[in-house]
Amino acid sequence: MKPFANNCVIIQNLKKMRRDGKTTRLINDAIEEMFKKGKICVPLKHPKSIKELKDAMAKDFFKDTKTKIFIDEDSKITNSIQKNFRERLVRRLDTEHTGYFMCSGEMIFKVIV
What we know:
The chain is mainly α. The protein is built from four helices and three strands; from the N terminus they run ααβααββ. A hairpin with a 2-residue loop joins β2 (101-104) and β3. The longest helix has 16 residues, at 2-17.
């Protein structure tokens, strides 16, 4: 009986670790938005608070634009999920759309050729 219970725990843990494609879908959405609107904002790290995010949006660059901000929902202040998301996004753009984008700080722009 005990080995069965231990096996169930292992199976449950494996199920929790299963990849479900959320980050890939977020990357797809970000790329689509960039090509549609011309630019997106992908913070380098998870914002510490809503205030920090609002402060970033208050910068002159954002005042007259409706730039969409992409934050991985699994990201927390204490982990590197947001950094990983941004790295994967830039890697995918570099692989599939070389020469059609430019990164500047937290902004990613579409380059018009």
